[in-house]
Amino acid sequence: MLISKYSEPEFDPYGDARQTETDDGWRAPLAASKLSAVLSLPGSKSLTNRELVLAALADSPSTLHAPLWSRDSELMIDGLRSLGTGFERVPGSGGFGDDLRVTPAGELLGSTTIDCGLAGTVMRFLPPVAALALGPTTFDGDEYARRRPMAGVIHGLQGLGVDLDDDRRGTLPFTVHGTGSVGGGELEIDASASSQFVSALLLSAPRFERGLDLRHAGDRLPSLPHIEMTIATLTARGVEVDNPETGRWIVAPGPIRGIDVDIEPDLSNAAPFLVAALVAGGSVTITGWPSETTQVGAQLIDLLPKFGARVEHDGDRLTVHAPSSATAEGRGIRGVHLDLSEAGELAPNLVALAAFADEPSTITGIGHIRHHETDRLAALAAELNGLGGRVTELDDGLRIEPAPLHGGPWRAYADHRMATTGAIVGLAVPGVIVDDIATTGKTLPQFTALWEQLLA
Ligand SMILES: O=C(O)C1=C[C@@H](OP(=O)(O)O)[C@@H](O)[C@H](O)C1
Ligand SMILES: C=C(OP(=O)(O)O)C(=O)O
Asked: What stretch or stretches form a coiled coil here (predicted)?
């Protein structure tokens, strides 16, 4: 378990979880009564890690207000620091840690090794930055990280003339031999395995001599809202980005402005708490919900009513109420037929919800989540079926049929969203034991403390 060397002594990404773990794992608490919780959440992983990269590539310092402090963001900070970026923690006004002042390097320097952990954003977003640095940068990560697809980034950089040694399997580890500049220009990649290939190249593209004219050639493009988020963060820093047709993006070369930026709460990490309102009954409110956002978690506003929830968005508060059809005998959760290709990140938590529905559900369009922190389709089917569920793997999704669940072990596979999914199941099923709840430290180190607050 990696605790970043950047951590201040008082910051322990695994502290909350450790307190509640037993030898077998973490005994997921059962909801003893209906929920009535109001919670606020730490910053978005996707926004924090984009802003860190852009701040490091900018023409002047930036300040990130209320950034996420977690394993994924600390790995990003460590990686950028080893390329020469300066970081200073400054007292923050948010409740989840310091703000962060980022000073770009005069000249990015390689001759370093970057640990990507299991963070898709780090392993995809940093190689193009390393191509802009002078000297070699070697990338590696956790054991499972070596199985996550990297071909779009590896072949993309090679296509731009960057010298990159890889094992020819299109995965970590590999070394980028940066020369201090990248020519840029026209490029075609296949981003069907991950939208992060596109985001990675777009984020560094303003610093390429000719910018970038990128096309995606492949049968599908998952997680489109994450590409929209990348474009929005670039344009907020004065970069010209054009999206003339689906699957093509043109980034003009030019400066990336240093700015002060507020990081929104992580709306995908709101999912387990909001889903809990349907599983345990009652209501859950998340504060600080942005009125406009590019985060895919905002789709929960439309997705949860399909399961029967009532959702209220009032100012900066989002409240989810259990279905009005819930009775003493049943939760009133409806089955759904969803294409989640845009929001694959929400799939694990929503599959748990479907497991408590009165009718069968299919969730499709998510073949690519087999390449997330683990093969999420296989993992969800294995863990739910291990507790008595009836879940069938499809090529690009899951079919979930109603079945009574019983307690037992729940494996997290080093996947934060598998861990939170086990916690959801444990709200209503006595005796669910999550083997590695600490893995929630990837994006939400406060998970178990917030879960206790949810149930208080
Ligand atoms: O760019 C990002 O911040 C992300 C993009 C998506 O990746 P995929 O396109 O690989 O699904 C998403 O699932 C991941 O959690 C975060
Ligand atoms: C897929 C995810 O993460 P990563 O950024 O590591 O790809 C996720 O958080 O669901």
From this structure: none
pLDDT at 93: 79
Tokens representing residue 176 in the block: 């980028």
Q: Which residue has the tokens 């479907």?
A: 354
- As for how many domains the chain has, the answer is 2
* pTM beyond 0.90, yes or no: yes
CA of 318 to the centre of ligand 1 (A): 23
Domain containing 137: what range? 45-262
| 343, 402: one domain | yes
Spacing, Cα 39 to ligand 1 middle (Å): 25
Average pLDDT in the 111-140 region?
Answer: 98
> Is 341 labelled as part of a ligand binding site?
no
* Mutate which of 226, 268, 296, 372 for ligand 1 pocket (most atoms within 8 A of beta carbon): 226
Query: Based on the number of CB atoms within 10 Å of its own CB, is 58 exposed (0-12), middle (13-18) or buried (19 or more)?
Result: buried
The pLDDT value recorded for residue 9 is: 32
Residue 24's pLDDT is 85
Q: What is the pLDDT of residue 394?
A: 98
Q: Is the CB of 269 under 6 A from ligand 1?
A: no
Instruction: Please name which ligand lies nearest the alpha carbon of 122.
Output: 2
443 CA distance to ligand 2 centroid (A)?
Answer: 9
pLDDT digits (tens, 9 = 90+) for 2-53: 333 333 333 343 344 444 566 689 999 999 999 999 999 999 999 999 999 9
* Residue 167: band (very low, low, confident or very high) from pLDDT cuts 50, 70, 90: confident
Helical H segments across 387-415, by residue range: none
Give residues with Cβ within 8 angstroms of 395, minimum separation 6.
367
User: Which ligand number lies closest to the CA of residue 222?
Assistant: 1
pLDDT in tens, 80-101: 999 999 999 999 977 899 999 9
ipTM of the complex: 0.99
Identify whether residues 357 and 252 lie together within a single domain: no
In a domain, 50, yes or no: yes
435 and 383 in a common domain: yes
What is Dmax (Cα atoms) for the chain?
A: 67
62 exposure class (CB count in 10 Å sphere: 0-12, 13-18, 19+) = buried
* Residue 228 appears among annotated catalytic residues: no
**Residue 121 shares a structural domain with residue 212:** yes
How many angstroms separate the CA atoms of 357 and 373, rounded? 26
Q: Which of 229, 262, 295 is the last residue of a domain?
A: 262
Cα(157) to centroid of ligand 2, in Å?
22
